[in-house]
Amino acid sequence: MATTDETWMERALDLARVAELEHGEVPVGAVLVDSSGALIAEAGNRCISEHDPTAHAEIVALRLAGRATRNYRLPGSTLYVTLEPCAMCAMAMIHARVQRVVFAATDPKTGAAGSVFDLLVDPRHNHRVAVTAGVLAEPASQMLSAFFRRRRRESAN
Predict the structure, then answer these.
(1) Inter-CA distances, 18 with 29, 31, 62, Å
(2) Is the pTM for the entire model greater than 0.85?
(3) Out of 20, 25, 58, 84, which one is annotated catalytic?
(4) Which of 70, 90, 104, 125 could be a cystine partner for 112, CB 3.0 to 4.6 Å?
């Protein structure tokens, strides 16, 4: 039986697939739920399609959640994302007062939830975000690796 974290991460993986297949994006998906476990917002990457370097799945989901709740603060919320958040996304979560982030694949180049930086739990911030890493990491990692393998092949031709 799947845990709640796995169930929401499966939805984030679905969003990542849609981002790649329908929009040509790096396959990253994000789902934000409130403290009762109800969906607030969800998104896939939109950087390429919106010509916006800040349109990471997490940022888009946070923007949609702010509009849906009519609040820029999202206390008690959990953000599920298929790739370890970067510094930009980590700081947005801190400013939004997200309670917890659950991510699948680590990002050894720009990860800000422990891989390269550890921004979410840095004691210098006035808010810290609890981190759960590695939920459905294998399918997320495989999806990302396959995407970049195809990209390299296409650019070589």
Answers:
(1) 9, 13, 19
(2) yes
(3) 58
(4) 90
